[in-house]
Every structure is written in structure tokens, then in C-alpha cells.
Amino acid sequence: MGNQTVVFDNPPVILSSYSVVGPKEGQGPLGKTFSKVWNDQLNGEKSWEVAESKMLQEAMQGAIDQAGIPKDQIDVMLAGDLLNQLISTNFAARQIALPLIGIYGACSTMALSMAVGSMLIDGGFAENVLVGVSSHHDTAERQFRAPTEQGTQRPMSAQWTVTGAGSVLLGRTGAGPRITSATIGRVIDFEQKDANNMGSAMAPAVADTLVNHFHDLQRKPAEYDMVVSGDLGAVGLALAGEVLKQSGIDMGTKFTDCGVMIFDASQDVHAGASGCGCSSVVFAGEIMQKIKMGELKRVLLVGSGALHSPTSALQGESIPGIGHAVVIEA
Prior knowledge:
The protein is α/β, with parallel strands linked by helices. The protein folds into two domains: 10-171, Peroxisomal Thiolase, Chain A, domain 1 (3-Layer(aba) Sandwich), CATH 3.40.47; 178-329, Peroxisomal Thiolase, Chain A, domain 1, CATH 3.40.47.40. The protein is 35% helix and 22% strand. The protein contains ten helices and 14 strands. The strands form three sheets. A six-stranded mixed beta sheet has the order 1-9-14-13-10-11, with helices on both faces. Strands 3-2-8-6-4-5 form a six-stranded mixed beta sheet, with helices on both faces. Strand 10 (226-229), helix 7 and strand 11 (255-257) form a beta-alpha-beta unit. The protein is globular, with a radius of gyration of 18 Å. The two termini are 21 Å apart.
């Protein structure tokens, strides 16, 4: 439909969801909505990277167990994380032992994986698809910014990478909310270079995806019970709202952000949360629960990603952004 949106003839069902988070996330306002909360960042593992992989493994196995579907009936696993060569995903997949398609969309990976998984099911290429996405505060800091041991001062525009893994199991048939459409985003770059201000780097891409989504489907924001971005944080959410307003789209009060929802001001996270684990655990927990309880009928989830690397940052490159959207309906 239109420029960038696909509408599914046979909308896939979200059969189950499961989320695992670290202690800081468990202490936040959404703490009771997560399936499992770890007591510390390592959870008994030898490194943060190993801990993240185990967290992702736990989330995906939890989604399988919750759905009650034998593993041999799952055709493929779509999973991703933030680390180089998707090491969290690959090592978790080594234990899950399902066919794997590794996906990297930075912090937009949850929405992108759900979109691709829905295409596989609607296209007749799979019956059941397992989606899993993770991030870890300490692994991300070590790779993208400064090691936490260094104690670097964070500016107020900085966001706190979520330690969390979220998973959903998609099926061709069954009971549950359905993914009815997906809008694949374009890479948008406004030449922002500050890795401590990710929200402003991603905001134009999220706004662009939303403009195209509403245009393609001839819909208005008011037709959704919730429009939620992945991890723009407070700075990026405000900027995206301004860009949309300049495009003639008033988002109203239903436009929010997973990075704003997961923490509160007392937790010293500055502009909010980030990381692809952010939208994955908020969606698998809070949003899925509200859909199941009937509080939300139609949700537009827009994953937001900053497409940079440690190498590109050191070479002075800007930070391109991208946004991928999926519509979930009860």
C-alpha cells in the first residue's frame, strides 16, 4: 500500500510474549509487567556479554514454553542485538538450536524482526516464527561509548541502555493479537554526530516513517489507541513530535516512547532509555498485557535505530537513523 507499507492478507498471530530484565529495569514503573527480573547485571555469568546472551536465551525459551508449541514446529528464529557480529544472538541460538536469521536494525530490531517474521508467515514460508531481541547496559557502553569502569560523566541528553531481552512467538493460526501491517523505514541522516544524543539522531527517521505510514494507509493518529516509538527518549520524542507537526500531523496525547515509559526521573537515566532491549521488553510486557486486557485495541509500534558503529564514530561520521513500524490489533 502506497510507498513503504505492506498489509497482510493473513495477519500473523502473536501467540506468546516473554521478557527478562535487569535490576534497574525491574525497579522502574513497569517492573511488575516483566516476566522475570534478574538480581544483578551478571546473574552469575563470567562477563556482561555472556550474561546478555543467556538473557536472550531465557526470553526466547520463555516465549516457546508459554505458547506450548513444540520446538520442532517452529520454522525459523529471527533475533538480534547491538553487539558486533550479533554475538549475543548467535551464542543464544547455539543453545536454542533453531534455524536462525540474524537481524540488525540497531534499536529498531524488535519492530523490524516482527515485520520480517510476519512477511514470512503471510507469504507462506513459515507456520511459526520466534522473535527475540536483547541489549545490555554494560555491553553497549563498552562497545559504543566508554567502559562503565571509567566513570565518564554523562550529559543530560544521554540515554540509559536497557538491560533486557524480549521475545514473541508468531504463528499463522491461534489466539492472540495480530500484526496487520508493517511500514519499512528509510535511512534518514540530519548530520548529527553526538553519540550521547541518540534521540535527536533517530527522531527524523521515526517522523519520516510515521508520515509515510499514515499516508500509505490513509489513516490519522487518532485511529490508534497508542503510537509508541522504540527508544527516542524525552529529547527525541519531543523532536519527532515537532517534525510531525511541521508535516501537518498532530500526534495528540497518544504518542509516547518506550524509553520514556520504562524508567522514572528518580532513576537518574537523564533523557530516558535506549537499546533494542527497550522496545522489546516494553512491548512483550506492558503493551501486550494491555492488549490482552482490552485496554488497547490498535497499537502502532515504531522501532527507532541509530545506525552507527564505534569505527564510524571514530572516523567522524554522522549518525544515520531508521524507523520500522508494525501495527498490532486485538
